[in-house]
Design brief:
The protein is mostly helical and 245 residues long. It is built from nine helices and two strands. The protein is globular, with a radius of gyration of 19 Å.
């Protein structure tokens, strides 16, 4: 985990707005549409697209509690965005686990299963949804053993310590599942949810797109690269898939 004192924009830029080819929706490219940019929407203004999907379809209550605590810790409410749950990241992760990505439709799952190197990517005999479930169970078991509480009930400092140790590869779950693999997937889906199209449940009210000045799905950047290459901030009312339906 990044230093909690770091600004959100520094964290996101350092992460490179991570995307993964196996996920249902990757972070959109930083492009802009050719029309003159619209005025920045007033704070609290209703989004152009319809409301994000509500309610869980896959995660169990204990898993929901973990995911909500995780996304709120990684994306706390501040001057840039609401909290991770308010942005819809928990729902995005739930939908991803319930869908074809979660079922491993794009993964080869026939084995043999050998320990791979870091540059070989995902090498576990688990679908992403299974890794999420086992990672959550393993995380809560570790937290109870270490602090006497499940992850969602930990103080912020202990959550930070746990996530940093998970990211550093210091924690191994039952069955030989590397904690680092779970953290990599969890962090990846948080970033994807923050910058996905709202139709997938995350990026509610398009706050992620507004934060970085991304205009949405109907985008063409050629002219605005010339127009805004002097460092002037590009502001636009973004459009999502639902706006073109």
């Amino acid at each position: 985990m990044p230093d909690p004192k770091m600004r959100r924009r520094d964290v996101l830029l350092g992460a490179g707005v991570v995307g993964a080819s196996a996920l249902p929706i990757a972070a959109p490219p930083a492009v802009a549409q050719p029309a003159a940019p619209a005025a920045t929407p007033a704070k609290g203004a209703a989004p152009a697209a319809g409301p994000a999907p509500a309610g869980y379809t896959f995660l169990k209550p204990s898993e929901q509690a973990f995911v909500e605590a995780m996304v709120d810790h990684m994306i706390p409410a501040d001057e840039l965005t609401p909290s991770g749950t308010d942005v819809g990241l928990a729902i995005f992760i739930d939908r991803a686990c319930a869908g074809s990505w979660g079922k491993g439709d794009r993964l080869y799952l026939q084995g043999p299963w050998k320990q791979g190197s870091a540059n070989q990517g995902y090498q576990l005999p688990l679908t992403p949804a299974e890794l999420y479930q086992r990672g959550i169970a393993g995380s809560n078991a570790y937290c109870r053993k270490t602090w006497g509480k499940s992850f969602d009930r930990l103080a912020a400092a202990d959550k930070e310590t746990f996530l940093k140790d998970l990211a550093a590869g210091k924690i191994m779950f039952a069955g030989g599942i590397p904690g680092r693999e779970f953290f990599t997937m969890a962090y990846q889906t948080v970033m994807e949810g923050l910058f996905s199209d709202p139709i997938y449940g995350g990026n509610r009210n398009m706050v992620g797109w507004r934060m970085v000045g991304f205009p949405g799905v109907g985008a063409n950047n050629a002219e605005n690269i010339k127009k805004y290459n002097d460092g002037t901030r590009f502001t636009v009312e973004p459009l999502g898939i639902a706006d073109f339906s």
